[in-house]
What does this fold into?
Amino acid sequence: MLRPIVVGLDGSRESVAAADWAAREALLRGLPLHVMHAWEGLPSGEEPVSLPELAVPRCRAQRILRYAVDHLDENHPQVPVTAEQIRESPVPALLAAAKNAELLALGNQGFGGLGGLLAGSVAMAVVARARTPVVLVRAGSDAVDEHVPNGSHEASATTPYRPVVVAVDLHHACDPLLAFAFEAARHRAAPLHVVHAWRLPNTRGGTDEQGHVPTQRDAEWVLESVLEPWKDKYPQVVVHATAEHGRPVPAVSRAARYAGLLVLGREVRHGVLGSRTGHVAHMAIHQVCCPVAVVAHE
It folds into this structure.
């Protein structure tokens, strides 16, 4: 059975953009799309609604789903769409839905902004806890933004896709991250840019455990050795790998400027500190313009 792409809706411009992105992604992957709206204050269908303060929110919730389905049917008629209204708090509802999804798409409001709940604190809480990849999409994000400009430097949805950029930290497991990134690049017939920011060890003399001072060539060799089996598995994907000495945040920020999709990792933590997003992903969610995919890994 095909696992759907799931998108959470709250009526904001960000969540509509996420639904459009999710529909395009579903078409690329040949998957169904499931749209959902969750709100714990929603009366159940069996309960009579007589008070205006209950009837108005219920009508709004139904309108959010109805508008989204009509919008998707009109703009993405090739994609099978199902819809669901859930009487539950958004965070646990989205996390439960994500368990059976290929990926989860949500709106992203970045800094400031007046987006809805699913583009703000709820989205951040879901990203920090979901094991399924979560893609965050900004309001105004359109199909043309995923493609390179045409010969006249004009936006076009018929030109090749912009690169998929993935940032890797070779001190952690990269397999889930690289699997998602290579698949995304394959579906788009897009080049894959792999970015690794490395720094000297925080020891006297900058040496590693063997007393060796790492060099640029060492970083490039390690990165290439990690990518080699993935290149063999995905020979159709053109890979550009960059090992850059310095801090990861500026390196990722620069690489993402011309990306159609940015893929980042989130380390799963099992201790008392709980889950966290990580400073690179936190920066990207708030500053990067293209859709950002956050992939959990051990």
